[in-house]
Design brief:
The complex is a heterodimer of chains A (138) and B (147). By secondary structure, chain A is α/β, with parallel strands linked by helices. Chain A is built from 3 helices and 6 strands. The chains are: A alpha/beta (138), B alpha/beta (147).
C-alpha cells in the first residue's frame, strides 16, 4: 500500500493583487470626487433704513430693462443713452476715470429677468466697481 | 587581496516588503470614501445666470445658507417652501446663531422676474443678513465671444 500523496496546495490567500484592487478603487474615487465650491458675485446690502446722501454728480444711473438693454444716465445730466449690458464695463471705466467717487446705482425693472441684472453686476464687478447700489425701478 | 576562508553569504532579502501596501491603499481609500460628501442631485429646476466675474466664496460651510428662488418665484430655504414675507423670520435666528457671519447664497433662476429677487433682498436686510452672494456659473470665454 502506497503512502497517500501529500497535497501541495498552499494555505495562504493570494494577496499580491489586493494592493492593485485597492489602488484602482482609490484612483476611481479620487477622480470622480467633485469638490462643491461656492461661487458667485458677492455684494453687501446696505443696512435697513440706512440712507446716504450722495451728490448727484457722483452717481451713474443704470436702468436695466426687460430686453437686456441698459439706460445710462450720468448724475444730473439729462441725456440718456441706451447700451447693451455687455458695454457697461466700458461705460463704468470711462466714468471712473473722470470721477473716482463714482457710485453705480443699478435700478432694475420689476419684470426684467434676474439674469439681466446679473449681467450688469458682472460687468461692473469685472470693471472693478466696488460701490454698487441695487434697487428696483419704481 | 586574498581573504582566507569562505566569504559569508549575504542574508539581506532582495524583495520589497509589499504586504502592507494593500493596507495603506485601503486606508487611503476608506479615508476618501468617508470624507466624500455626495451631494444629492439638485431637486430644484433652477438654471443659474452666468458671469465672468464669478468669484470663489471663501467662507466656512457652516456660515453659508442657500436660498433657492425657482423660476416661478417660489422661495426655498433649507428645502422648505417659504412665503416671501416669512423669509426674514426664518433667516433672523439662523443669522443670530451664526455669530453674525452668515453669508446667504442666493441661488435664483436666471429668468425669475427681478421683483422677486428684490423682495428677497429687502427681507434679508430686515433680518440683518447683509452679506449676500448671487450664485452664478462662470461664463466661458467662448460664449462671451459669441454673444
Amino acid at each position: 500500500m502506497a503512502f497517500p500523496k501529500r497535497t501541495r496546495i498552499s494555505g495562504s490567500i493570494p494577496t499580491s493583487s489586493m494592493a492593485d484592487i485597492a489602488f484602482l478603487l482609490l484612483i476611481f474615487f479620487l477622480v470622480t470626487t467633485v469638490f462643491d465650491e461656492e461661487r458667485g458675485l458677492p455684494i453687501v446690502l446696505p443696512e435697513q433704513g440706512e440712507t446716504q446722501e450722495v451728490s448727484q454728480t457722483n452717481v451713474l444711473h443704470l436702468t436695466v430693462l426687460e430686453d437686456g438693454t441698459v439706460e445710462v444716465k450720468r448724475g444730473e445730466s439729462p441725456t440718456v443713452t441706451r447700451v447693451p449690458a455687455s458695454q457697461i464695463a466700458g461705460v463704468w471705466r470711462l466714468g471712473f476715470q473722470q470721477n473716482q467717487n463714482l457710485i453705480a446705482a443699478v435700478k432694475t425693472a420689476p419684470d426684467a429677468p434676474y439674469r439681466n441684472m446679473v449681467a450688469v453686476l458682472d460687468q461692473l464687478q469685472s470693471a472693478g466697481a466696488e460701490r454698487i447700489s441695487l434697487q428696483i425701478l419704481e | 587581496m586574498i581573504t582566507g576562508g569562505l566569504t559569508r553569504k549575504s542574508k539581506a532579502q532582495s524583495n520589497i516588503p509589499d504586504s502592507s501596501l494593500a493596507d495603506m491603499a485601503f486606508l487611503l481609500l476608506i479615508f476618501f470614501m468617508v470624507s466624500t460628501t455626495f451631494r444629492s442631485e439638485d431637486p430644484r429646476e433652477v438654471e443659474f445666470p452666468e458671469a465672468q466675474a464669478t468669484q470663489k466664496l471663501d467662507e466656512p460651510r457652516k456660515n453659508i445658507l442657500h436660498l433657492f428662488v425657482e423660476g416661478d418665484g417660489s422661495i426655498y430655504i433649507n428645502d422648505l417652501l417659504t412665503p416671501t414675507a416669512n423669509v426674514s423670520n426664518v433667516i433672523a435666528p439662523i443669522y443670530a446663531a451664526s455669530d453674525r457671519r452668515l453669508v446667504v447664497v442666493l441661488r435664483a433662476d436666471r429668468d425669475v422676474p427681478y421683483r422677486v429677487v428684490d423682495a428677497v433682498q429687502k427681507e434679508l436686510q430686515e433680518a440683518g443678513a447683509y452679506r449676500v452672494t448671487f450664485y452664478t456659473n462662470l461664463a466661458q470665454r467662448v460664449t462671451r465671444e459669441r454673444r
